[in-house]
Amino acid sequence: MLALSRKKNEAIVINNNIELTILEIKGEQVKIGISAPKDVPIYRKEVYLQIKEANAEAMTADAIEGLNNLFG
Known about the structure:
This protein has 72 residues and is an alpha+beta fold. 38% of the residues lie in helices and 28% in strands.
């Protein structure tokens, strides 16, 4: 993991097309602005993990249903 220090209104550029800007710092909370192409999905980690889990469950259910249909 790369750890960088930034102050308010300073930014980090990733891969020439994603920019993270520190918008506000209040106590232990940091507000970050993200500029990225529309085709780049951006999620909070807890939401990403929920989506990933739901997709895995759906794939398992679809695979079982597909096998049942195939051999049913």
